[in-house]
Specification:
- This protein is mainly α and 550 residues long.
- It is built from 22 helices and 7 strands.
Length: 550
């Protein structure tokens, strides 16, 4: 074994397989970049473009991180899908790298002795003691009333001859090519950011439980704070780890004084956004309640089957192998909490009626754990490798078709059954064309005092982005943070051109146009009606009734 392959001092871990992992990441980045410009912006991205131009410490539906990154990317690279989606590509590459590092964290015992744990073979920082006793699940040097029980020789496997390099590569590749990762890292969304933050937090918490060093609570807290600046869903992950550690340990890390420091670090990072939410009546809580009330039943029904679809059925055996490995091998007893995090988060999401994708990120820890036994299984013969290659090929093809704009828009029909977000990237310039035609049909003397009003932030974002070159004024909407950006002036007493179902909130409405998505794509805007309505007597007084969230 070369010097580069030898374990780091005191860590008990092999070197990162930088070369082959970098190849995986480069291919991933190339594929995401190649497809990033197809179709067009997603409705959420159009909203982020506008929110990024109105930076604040919070919004009705989210903290500021994703709009801020959108602003940064578009200022540097241009307000195009390809320029913006560099953020998503970096999130995808970062997630794949982190999962490879998790696979490294979960390597088997050092050397070739099957009966000695990694922590006991490698001395720690002082006194020749290991940093952490992996078998007892306690920091090194913790007194014990009884001697350690014999370690079953058949349950502790030696570290693979290659130092776990193949497992790292497999973990990175499986993550990069999985359906969920392709879907959420093809475009920018809050989930893109959550994915990389949650995975980084899982890696840090695994390092905490492996070493028993409470100081790891500090970076964990900082990552949780960053997550809170993106979306509050990171609290699900934190709760999952807290419950899992309380049940299976190592519980000693929960008694560390550094835990309080980590909590304070998280609150310090998240404080500006939390203050904004408190000052504005905690609108994100109202939004979460709206999601549960509106979609809770459907979300509960779809939660389990969508886990298989998101991860790809081909990867389910690897995930199951990861669960079995971590739960059964005494040398990985310190990591058992990671097995419980996934079901704990799933149960919470089920009770709250959360969306199925909320649950997916913790599964990547189990996928990383399953990489090493999968590599061993593949070494069992050419027939196994042949079958695995066929299955992997089919899985990658399906993931690519579902997660990336591979097909022409006209052929998206079957894809939309699994990934509705693909359809939400089609037809926004055409919607702007439809509205611009209706707007230009208004008499010139009326346009000066007319208002353009939309039913949702996607429509408003599209008209704000594509509208100016088509002669459209700024769009107004009562949806999400568009409502906070203000009503039209009370002097706008001319006609109101209303896009979508919000016409029901106005009087004197008559349809003037109907939008049809190009190529017959069945998305949320196909069939949207544009209506001419009468303005309310006072926009400022009518505005509260026009506000709406989810």
């Amino acid at each position: 074994m070369s010097t580069r392959e030898r374990t780091r001092a005191g860590s008990g871990l092999p070197a990162v397989a930088w070369g082959p992992v970098a190849v995986v990441l480069a291919v991933q980045a190339a594929v995401l970049t190649a497809f990033s410009g197809r179709y067009g912006f997603h409705r959420d991205e159009l909203y982020f473009l506008v929110a990024g131009q109105r930076l604040d410490w919070g919004y009705v539906d989210q903290p500021p991180l994703t709009p801020a990154l959108t602003r940064l990317a578009t200022d540097l690279l241009g307000a195009t899908p390809m320029g913006l989606r560099v953020v998503a590509t970096l999130c995808g590459v970062g997630t794949a790298l982190l999962v490879a590092l998790i696979a490294r964290e979960l390597v088997g015992p050092v050397g070739g002795s099957p009966g000695v744990s990694a922590a006991r073979l490698h001395a720690g920082r002082t006194g020749g003691q290991p940093e952490y006793d992996q078998v007892r699940g306690l920091p090194a040097g913790t007194p014990s009333e009884k001697p350690d029980p014999p370690i079953p020789q058949t349950n502790l496997r030696p570290r693979p001859p290659d130092g776990g390099r193949a497992a790292q590569v497999l973990a990175a590749a499986a993550t990069a090519l999985g359906t969920f990762v392709l879907v959420v890292t093809h475009m920018v969304s809050t989930t893109s950011i959550d994915l990389v933050v949650w995975t980084a937090l899982a890696l840090v918490l695994l390092r905490l439980t492996r070493t028993g060093d409470g100081r790891w609570w500090v970076p964990a807290g900082l990552l949780a704070g960053i997550g809170l600046q993106n979306k509050w869903l990171v609290l699900l992950l934190c709760a999952g780890w807290a419950v899992a550690l309380a049940i299976v340990g190592p519980r000693r890390v929960l008694r560390s004084g550094w835990l309080l420091v980590g909590v304070l670090a998280a609150l310090a990072v998240a404080a500006p956004s939390l203050v904004w939410q408190a000052a504005n009546g905690w609108p994100q809580l109202d939004l979460a309640s709206g999601i549960s009330e509106s979609d809770g039943g459907e979300n509960r029904v779809l939660l389990v089957p969508m886990q298989v679809a998101f991860l790809s059925p081909v990867l389910v055996p690897t995930l199951v192998a990861g669960v079995r490995r971590v739960w059964r091998e005494p040398g990985l007893r310190w990591a058992r909490a990671s097995v419980l995090v996934y079901p704990v988060v799933a149960v919470v999401a089920l009770v709250l009626g959360g969306k199925p994708y909320y649950v997916v990120p913790p599964a990547f820890v189990l996928l990383a754990a399953g990489a090493e036994p999968t590599v061993r299984w593949l070494a069992g013969g050419a027939a196994r490798r042949a079958w695995a290659a066929v299955a992997a090929g089919v899985g990658v093809a399906v993931s690519a078709v579902v997660g990336l704009p591979v097909l022409p828009a006209a052929q998206l029909g079957p894809v939309l059954a699994m990934n509705q977000e693909a359809g939400e990237q089609v037809g926004w310039p055409e919607l702007a064309d439809t509205v611009a035609t209706a707007w230009s049909a208004l008499p010139a003397d009326e346009r000066a005092s007319a208002v353009l009003f939309t039913s949702n932030y996607g429509q408003a974002g599209a008209l704000d982005h594509y509208g100016p070159e088509r002669g459209l004024p700024p769009a107004h909407s009562g949806h999400m943070s568009y409502a906070d950006w203000g009503p039209p002036p009370d002097t706008a007493t001319g006609p109101v051109l209303v896009v979508g179902e919000a016409a029901a909130r106005f009087t004197g409405c008559a349809p003037v146009a109907t939008h049809r998505s190009p190529d017959g794509v069945d998305n949320d805007e196909d069939g949207t009606v544009v209506s001419r309505c009468a303005a309310p007597p006072s926009w400022s007084r009518a505005w509260p009734a026009l506000r709406h969230g989810y």
